[in-house]
From TrEMBL:
Gene3D superfamilies: 3.30.70.260, Chorismate mutase (1.20.59.10), Periplasmic binding protein-like II (3.40.190.10). Its EC number is 4.2.1.51, 5.4.99.5. It comes from Candidatus Propionivibrio aalborgensis. One of its GO terms (molecular function) is chorismate mutase activity. Catalyzes the Claisen rearrangement of chorismate to prephenate and the decarboxylation/dehydration of prephenate to phenylpyruvate. This is Bifunctional chorismate mutase/prephenate dehydratase.
Amino acid sequence: MSDELQQKLSIVRAEIDAIDAQLIELLNRRAKCAQQVGEIKASHGDAGYIYRPEREAQVLRRIQEINPGPLSNESVTWFFREVMSACLSLEQALGIAFLGPLGTFSESAATKHFGHAARLMPQVSIDDVFREVEASHADYAVVPIENSTEGAIGRTLDLLLTTPLKICGEVVLRIHQHLLSSETSLGNISKVYSHAQSLAQCHEWLNRSLPNAQRIPVASNAQAAQCAAAEAGTAAIAGEAAAERYQLPKLASSIEDEPNNTTRFVVLGRQEARPSGRDKTSLIMSAHNRTGALGKLLAPFSESGVSMTRLESRPARHTLWEYVFFVDIEGHREDPAVATALAELGQRAAYLKVMGSYPVTVY
């Protein structure tokens, strides 16, 4: 390395070192401000919930608006989520329940939303995820609600019907499926373990590449990785987190049939989220068994100028051949137009439950 090059690099590296020193000072100043917020709230009797999803969304949107680059908005959003996660943990590490074991896409969604300072609490079933928060053993739950390829997650929808928990956030996670195995050749694979939805998401790839391999559904992709790590001649379909956690090489990468395969998760808590400025409201409703009842049920949204972004039907569990409808609309329930629509809907619906208003996910 020439002296001239060494000198130029030394100048830039010295500037980097100086900036790092400023960053660490500013990060700790921010952490102290976050602690002061907690102390002020506690002195006014408002210390019950240290995490405010609407405030976090507002901070992240502002960061994106003032970001001059060259770092992408995705990168700065990830960084500031981790900063906020670390600051929150100075008061209390949030306990986050999700479908385990460690290494699932649900873990990735929980970490994406709450950062690595959160206390992860993997559960053996979606029912247990709900139960942990309902019993106040965990602060929040992260559960899958729909996949762009396979549709709604039925068990989550069923539990939303009866839970007292509120939806206070959402996470959208791009799903990349990998074939993980200690084997070095596809020809050595006789069994493929994975969650049933992941097997379905990779159906065509499996038909082409492993037509004779037995497909074995298990409770989660992380469990599939555990099975593949323990048994010769097997593979698992799972994500990056499982590959790293269980030290399984990728025999094939991104094998999902749909290139834009995405899963949406919702965050459940015991408190309502306040308006953030860009929100979504989720609700469950049913129509009276009359001609044109569904059309009349949906009319308040258009009459109030409220946009509906999702309508999903599901059989009612208490009555044969009757259905409930899961609906997402734009806006917060406190917004005047949304409040008007919900009030009218309450008069027309046979059943209505507002599951929560929450910030639209910030990528």
